[in-house]
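Follow-up to my earlier ticket, as requested here are the two runs.
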Amino acid sequence: MKLILLGPPGAGKGTQCKRIVDRYGMTHLSSGDILRGERAAGSDLGHRAQAYMDSGALVPDDLIIEMMIGAMKKAGGGYVLDGFPRTVVQGEALDAALSRAGERIDGIVNLVIDDGIIVQRMTGRRSCPKCGAVYHIENLKPKVDNICDTDGEPLVQRKDDQPEVVANRLKTYHEQTAPVLGYYERTGQKIMTIDAAQAPEEVTAAVFAELDALSDQVG
């Protein structure tokens, strides 16, 4: 299967992507991970994207499209696209590239969740700067307040979990990425809408039920 995973920041896309990949033997294609890999490898794409990344600007659509199409070709079999497409322009380019190759996306997993829940989830996260362990001030507290259970390091709030940053990320999602779903609705794509406000295991069960049925259809 060839899938796209859509959803706002904090919806649990990373967790569900890993579980989908493990169950169905697919390749996880994360635009962020691939972009960082291209940069670390010193590739032409990495060099071209570096100036944008260093300045905090969005990497232009044409570079992201070129990078992701290349990654999809290397993947060969089934894959889950995570973080791509982020805009309608990227969605149109993806469909055009797949059409030229005689392929298509089989379905879209759309994680839906209220902004208020996302804000609570993300702004309440605390991380260990040493081992990377993640806690939550309400749902996953350390044994000692604000101290990592593993190595005793003081926990920190990552910059991208600060309230103003979370608000900006949600604003960007609603303005740029949410319309991608409308594009796929207009083109008749198979969309599987999942309530991401549930516990992660319940979300996974709902995703697997949809994908098992889709797998039977696409062979």
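Run two:
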Amino acid sequence: MKTLEGYKILLLSVAIVAAGYFVGNMHKTGKSYARSVQVKGLSEREVPADLAVWPINITLAGNDLNILKQEIEMQNNTVYQFFMNQGFTDNELTEGATNISDSRADRYRSNMSNREFRYIAKSDLTIRTSDIPKLQTALARSLDLLSDGIVIGSKNEWRPIEYIFTGLNDIKPSMIEEATKNARQVAEKFAMDSNSKVGKIMNARQGLFSISDRDSNTPQIKKVRVVTTIDYQLRD
């Protein structure tokens, strides 16, 4: 009996010692993992737009419906031929519909009966091209249409031409790599200042890619930006 009781006491003592070891080790390990630093890494690039969309409209007014119809059709053909002469193709030019409205038929505007012109004709033409220099040359030369009495405008007055960058997927991997390296450098600087070393990555979050104009005067140049957030373990 005494031997059995002694054996039980010995097992209990060993269990207590082992439990103390594991608890202490877990505390030490947990403490080491509790030491971390969160840093952000940035990657920015300036890239040229590779697609441009220019929605053009032509607006004419008159009182004779037949004459107005002939004039808008003539101007549509002239504008279309102008851009064809600038080197655009049928795939880059899309002709939209022509709409003619009767201002006197608008019963919600009582003052329309006093307008000089009864009919308003509007037609659309959209240029969609990846040849940005060709578009900019055509834009500068479009003033020549004034000699033919043709005034063209854009459907979007606040942004006449929309410049787009479509190659984001091609630069994503290298930008993420650059942002990660930048975050690592920040973490190493922090660790050096605190007499620590950078350990493993505990958590990483990739921010959204943003594409914006470099400035209001050069919308054809885009600024691509991404920020990554990384938590690094710190060790002695």
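The only thing I checked on run two: The chain has two domains: 34-48+166-235, 51-164. Let me know what else you need.
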